[in-house]
Amino acid sequence: MVENLTVQLAERSYALSFGATLVEEIRAMVADLHSAGRKVVVLTDANLAAEQADFFPEAFVGCPRLVVEAGEGTKSLTVFGTVLDFLAAQKIDRGGVLIAVGGGVIGDLGGFAAAAYLRGIDFYQVPTTLLAMVDSSVGGKTGINLAAGKNLVGAFHQPQQVFIATSLLQSLPEREFAAGMAEVIKYGMLYDAALFAELEQNPLNVQSDSLSAVVRRCCEIKAKIVAEDERETAKEGGRALLNLGHTFGHAIEQVAGYGVYLHGEAIGIGLAAAARLSQKLGHLTEADVQRIEAMITAHQLPVRVREPMALDDLMNAVALDKKVRAGLPRFVVMTAIGTTITKSDVESAMAEACFREIGAV
Length: 361
Ligand code: NAD
Known about the structure:
By secondary structure, the protein is α/β, with parallel strands linked by helices. The chain contains 14 helices and eleven strands. Helix 11 crosses helix 14. The longest helix has 18 residues. The protein is globular, with a radius of gyration of 20 Å. Nicotinamide-adenine-dinucleotide (NAD) binds next to helix 2, helix 5, helix 6, strand 8 and helix 7.
């Protein structure tokens, strides 16, 4: 059964469609586009092309496909150029359509290529990692990395529709599933105490009966927050709340060297640090922090860095974070499990203490 949820963004509104496989729905969508005379191309990565070899000919009938290397390195200027050249070679015009089939890397890269090519063509997302299903495919942030840092070039470009087919997760490596769980846990911590309690009772894995319901709940939360603050311009709260744990996590990812921790692993540690910050500010109890750490650990994610990391380097990374406003880093803080605020006046000493507690020296 297919269920739909609308991301409410006025004329840029779109549906998130949930189901086990969605092959028929995608094939019908492609057929409709073709019969309207529109060219449709697919972007994916080599792992997906191999792991889901049957999915492509079944769902994307008659669509030329570009297969790029898997991994974060693909969100580069070079591969971005390759995608644009492919669109041009396929003679994609303003009516052409790109479908990004993959994890956050393919969604971000494909979305940005669709935003830039001919100043914007339509694109669809078929997320295939847990992280992409609950987070990156929803909300229209697209982009690539520069040598100077992650996600430094990009655009807001909302998809036309997102097809969230949870059976695709069956081939996802366990470590990648765990990394996606960091974002799932984040939604419970920031917005939904009931979701947090449910995951506490029944840790989620790819076989869980509740998997599709949990994915859908996360998308509902993200859709609601994005609808209220599409471009993250709210002075307080808003879309920035989705960055719970990310100021710490991005610093860990960057200082360790990209690829040492998966994004979700760094966010797991970042969520533990954010819990400690919330405790130091007087909002959470030690028991809350313990609950949060137990939840992260139960989902095979770290709550401490694996090797000691230099505190100065981590604090420098925080200072350079994209979310710095008027020189002050903004942290997202829980006022209780399930409610959050943004906070710009966190003293450095307090942030340093949090970093020490997760293993910085
Ligand atoms: P990813 O796209 O690199 O995918 C992880 C790995 O899993 C890759 O090796 C991929 O080939 C493989 N894979 C994907 N689906 C598979 C499947 N079904 N079966 C087998 N293997 C599969 O990583 P990710 O974690 O999905 O995304 C991370 C990226 O998302 C980062 O670049 C991050 O910046 C971005 N991101 C963007 C947003 C946003 O709002 N746009 C939000 C969060 C993260």
